[in-house]
Write a structure and sequence with these properties.
Alpha-Beta Plaits, four-stranded antiparallel β-sheet
């Protein structure tokens, strides 16, 4: 993925039971990641996971945006607040309230 300098990377993470990773990843692909791609200004996204070795796994989204204004079209005016979907609570062991943003150089 070729991401231009001046764009913004947005990351979110949470933990789920390792046995639920496949189902949760599919759910996030159908909801959040699909909505990223439908939002003007999205430059791409990735969904990754890793087994933490204790029966839990971390799931993380990484998305790239032209600008913070474009992120607001997806996330709302307070772009620092994490956005959740109806079935997330069925899977999540943690539910971070915020996301992180990084300037791409």
């Amino acid at each position: 993925m070729d991401v231009p300098s001046g764009s913004v990377m947005r990351t979110w993470w949470a933990t789920v039971r390792t046995v639920d990773v496949g189902e949760y990843v599919a759910y996030v692909e159908e909801t959040g990641v699909a909505e990223y791609h439908r939002t003007a200004g999205n430059l791409g996204a990735a969904l990754v996971s890793r087994d933490l070795g204790d029966g839990t796994s971390e799931v993380r989204t990484v998305s790239f945006w032209r600008s913070r204004a474009d992120i607001a079209a997806f996330a709302g005016a307070d772009i620092e607040t994490a956005r959740y979907y109806p079935e997330d609570d069925r899977f999540l062991l943690t539910r971070p309230e915020t996301v992180d943003h990084f300037d791409v150089h």
